[in-house]
């Protein structure tokens, strides 16, 4: 059985508080899944997912990177249920049956 933490991130912008929360989750679980929302592309928010992912990963050591997975999640502003379903789909594609996943920054178990 593996333990995971899930950190859902809007990335506006990625900051020290995000890093601290992710570092705490790395110390408490086997792996941390970072789900980065697509965000609406605007002048102020113009980074692609790959640019965001690269910036996020550059904030961590090689040892920490072995425990981090970063995925893109589409914003679904018009449907909360569809957005939740996309997060559940991500979890089901990454986490095996019997594994434990918590929401980073909380004590809430998702499974």
Characterize the structure shown.
The radius of gyration is 14 Å and the shape is globular. Helices cover 37% and strands 22% of the residues. The protein has a single domain, classed as Rossmann fold (3-Layer(aba) Sandwich), CATH 3.40.50.620. The longest helix has 15 residues. The chain is built from 4 helices and 4 strands; from the N terminus they run βαβααβαβ. The chain has a 4-stranded parallel β-sheet with strand order 3-2-1-4, sandwiched between helices. The model has no long low-confidence stretch (mean pLDDT 85). It is of the alpha/beta class.
Q: What order do the SSEs take from the amino end to the carboxyl end, as H and E?
A: EHEHHEHE
> Portion of residues in helices?
25-40%
Q: What's the CATH first level?
A: Alpha Beta
Radius of gyration: 14 Å
How far apart the termini lie comes to 12 Å
